[in-house]
Amino acid sequence: MGLVSNIALPTASSAVAFTPLGQELLNRGTLCVDDLLTAMWTAKRQNVPLETVLCADWHLSEDEICSAQATAFDALRIDPVAAPPDPRLIAAFGAQRILKTGLLPWRNAGAATVVLCTSVAGFMRHRDALAAYLGPVRLALTTPTQLAKAMRQLRDPHLTHAAETQLPERDSSRCWNSAVAQRWVFGMATFLGAALLTAPVVMAALFCLLVSALVILTTALKLAATIAGWKTASGTEHRSAALPVRLPTITLLVPLYKERDITAHLIRRLDALDYPRSLLDVCLVLEANDTTTRQAIDAVALPSWMRPIAVPEGTLKTKPRALNYAMTFAHGSIIGVYDAEDAPAPDQLRTVANHFANATHDVACLQGTLDYYNPTANWLTRCFTLEYASWFRVILPGFAKLGLVVPLGGTTLFFRRTVLEKLGGWDAHNVTEDADLGVRLARRGYRTEFMASVTEEEANGRMWPWVKQRSRWLKGYAITYAVHMRDPFALWRDLGAWRFFGVQLLFLGTLLQFALAPVVWSFWLMPLGIPHPLQAVVPPAVIWGLAGAFIAAGLINLAIYIIGARRAGKPRLAFWAPTLQLYFSLAVAAVYKGLVELTWKPFYWDKTTHGVLMPDATLPPRRPAHPASDGQQMPH
């Protein structure tokens, strides 16, 4: 393209100074001159080591490259798994620094410290800093896989503990006390039960007043969000801006647990992503004792840019804990999160790179648009698709426009790694780690923006699994609210009055609306001729006024669902929008299930089974095998 059209690529007949690694690969006959020149140009263009390009695009093995480097530089090859390093050096240098730099202080040999590296270029780049820290240093070679395996072997207890506790306790839910929660729930239940028995009319009136206020405020906020986002659909701000000259390395973390049926589909979908393979780092994150997923992964030949990461057993088993552990092994400056059933748009990562390159530095997170690839499987999937269409295409972008806190969506999330590490990563104990992280980002002054790029998922189409999934979300909302409201004044100070109000309405309001929904349902007794407790004390005009407010709220919500369906390109689903009142009644069971679990197993992750309602059409065609480009045409 125009950005590099004036760059001349050396040819085989040109006088070219090959690197020692390149010359050794030529001597061995591993590469021809033209391939080496192309690889060198790609490495320079993408600002990555030549070894990375050779692995990702020319499919050379780590062993081939390590052997060639050792010969070219007359260096030893050392396997730190078979010959473990000095643990004192590891503790002093730091496991995370080793994994980030690919440099492992191995052992002292005389007056020098032997440093294992996966790239000689990386060693040379850090040589002065190494010498300043360790004294005289000597080079030795190892492979990235051997280095990572050695670190897991030596430091897994430390890395596992960090994954669970790296977030400061003041920001984490890990100190949640179930016994205290039980006492609160028992006390509240006792008080409300006694109040209902002694003053049923007063309590009914109070509940009715609270529900009415919540419905009116929530509907008004949704309407404001719809209007705020009307002129600009989500994520269009940077679509026309120029691509960055150099694309960033993106790490995709994909947590998997007992995913036997979806793994092959996932790998095909990730392979369909249009992004330079030398800049792509896909981590398939699985639990160490999950033999089901491990067998499914082992049955597939993974490319060099895709690797499994096994999370050791610990004190709990949650998605955010797995993400924290895996991020230690990540290579990218941008961290993305996908779920097992996700089917992202092929150009999504280029959209991410484009958006971050043109965004201000306070934009720490990008949220993609979520949709479903099985919207017409049954009634439940139709309603779920309508809900997501209104949430991700209308309401959440509107919240962002209004300057409110944005609860993140759990998948198709992309973060600046530096910010994510500064915040302490995810709360390993929170079962809606996404919503919590959205609040923490806002409290630290960072913003989330939305992309128009779509990721399709599998809509939950069975009622009890839907209730279990929703109960986890609502339980997480309750935990997130409790954590951030430990010090309401600090939350007010961090967010300001407007966003503080938004947090109250979004988290507490959502929980109360579902918990008190039966109060609203009770008004349907009146048209059936069944007396309502409030009829004796509340004037008919007030009751009819409340009924009118509820009807108006329902019509506004109906309009939002229709707008969402149209923006999603699924206008026919709008015919099902009136049935969402019945659909959301399932959340009443979910909220009570979640609230009960707060007193019993607050950190329990009620897993959603994937691959149940997945049409064959969601499997993309295989991507042709060819060296990936960064979107720039190689000059001739």
From TrEMBL:
Residues 616-636 are annotated as: Disordered. One of its GO terms (cellular component) is membrane. Keywords: Glycosyltransferase, Membrane, Transferase, Transmembrane, Transmembrane helix. The keyword Transferase applies. It is a multi-pass membrane protein. Gene3D superfamilies: Spore Coat Polysaccharide Biosynthesis Protein SpsA, Chain A. One of its GO terms (molecular function) is glycosyltransferase activity. The keyword S-adenosyl-L-methionine does not apply. It is found in: Membrane. The chain crosses the membrane at residues 184-217, 500-521, 541-563, 575-595. InterPro entries: Glyco_trans_2-like, Glycosyltr_2/OpgH_subfam, Nucleotide-diphossugar_trans, T2SS_E_N_sf. Its main location: membrane. Residues 335-526 form the Glycosyltransferase 2-like domain. It comes from the Bacteria. It holds the Pfam family Glyco_trans_2_3. This is Glycosyltransferase, catalytic subunit of cellulose synthase and poly-beta-1,6-N-acetylglucosamine synthase. The lineage of its organism: Bacteria, Pseudomonadati, Pseudomonadota, Alphaproteobacteria, Rhodobacterales.
